[in-house]
């Protein structure tokens, strides 16, 4: 039943050779490149910001990093426990984005983008999290639209990301203070010259 629903949703979303060229081009950009905005944002939050907000921003960045590692580890385990072929690998629908015919569940792109979005929702600002969630949903849609993922791959990615954020919060509650101090010391040592010149925050 669930597999039939998955296939029905996929065929409803998946592009066809008759789809508009601008839709395909937009989806390819979203599927490949939009995700790059997310790590760029956390780098910016670590390096720059108002003096009284930098500490909170950096703690949020570290939580996000922990959540991402946890989410991708869970995703890897789920992929090996519940292997699932991609749509094009079984000849279903149309494929408009090159991808190796490896396991599809859950989506790594979906897991990564949803983890960033949830992290910003939980630990940063509601508006920033909402914007990143919209971007994550767009990425999820684009990869189904282009034929490299199933809808359930993205549902699995969302739940994987939720688990990753929960694990990150539990780890932070236990060891966050020490971790933040150690990483901050390492940052100040490695970025001593840019900090001294005022290019980045201390």
Overview of this structure, please?
- The protein is mainly α and 202 residues long.
- It has a single domain (36-196), classed as Up-down Bundle (Vanadium-containing Chloroperoxidase, domain 1).
- 71% of the residues lie in helices and 0% in strands.
- The protein contains eight helices and no strands.
- The chain is elongated and about 55 Å long.
Helix content: over 70%
Secondary-structure element pattern, one letter each: HHHHHHHH
CATH T-level topology: Vanadium-containing Chloroperoxidase, domain 1
Distance between the termini: 56 Å
The CATH class label is Mainly Alpha
The gross shape turns out to be elongated
Task: Estimate the strand proportion.
Answer: under 5%
Pfam family, one: PAP2
Transmembrane segments: 29-48, 60-82, 122-142, 154-172
Organism: Jejubacter calystegiae
Protein name: undecaprenyl-diphosphate phosphatase
Produce the secondary structure layout.
Layout: H1 2-13, H2 21-32, H3 37-47, H4 54-81, H5 108-123, H6 126-145, H7 151-190, H8 192-196
Helix pairs in contact: 2-6, 3-4, 4-5, 4-7, 5-6, 5-7
Keywords: Hydrolase, Membrane, Transmembrane, Transmembrane helix
GO molecular function, one term: undecaprenyl-diphosphatase activity
Pfam family, one: PAP2
């Amino acid at each position: 039943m669930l597999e039939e629903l998955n296939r029905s949703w996929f065929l409803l979303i998946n592009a066809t050779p008759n789809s508009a060229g601008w839709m395909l081009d937009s989806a390819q950009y979203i599927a490949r490149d939009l995700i790059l905005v997310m790590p760029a944002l956390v780098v910016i939050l670590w390096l720059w910001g108002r003096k009284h907000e930098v500490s909170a921003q950096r703690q949020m960045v570290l939580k996000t990093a922990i959540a991402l590692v946890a989410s991708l580890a869970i995703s890897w385990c789920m992929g090996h426990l519940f292997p699932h072929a991609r749509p094009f690998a079984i000849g279903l629908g149309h494929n408009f984005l090159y991808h190796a015919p490896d396991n599809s569940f859950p989506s790594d792109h979906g897991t990564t983008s949803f983890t960033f979005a949830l992290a910003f929702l939980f630990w940063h600002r509601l508006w920033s999290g909402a914007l990143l969630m919209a971007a994550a949903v767009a990425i999820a849609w684009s990869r189904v639209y282009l034929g490299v993922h199933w809808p359930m791959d993205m549902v699995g990615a969302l739940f994987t990301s939720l688990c990753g954020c929960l694990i990150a919060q539990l780890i932070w509650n236990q060891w966050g203070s020490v971790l933040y101090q150690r990483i901050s010391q390492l940052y100040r040592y490695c970025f001593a010259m840019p900090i001294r010149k005022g290019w980045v925050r201390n």
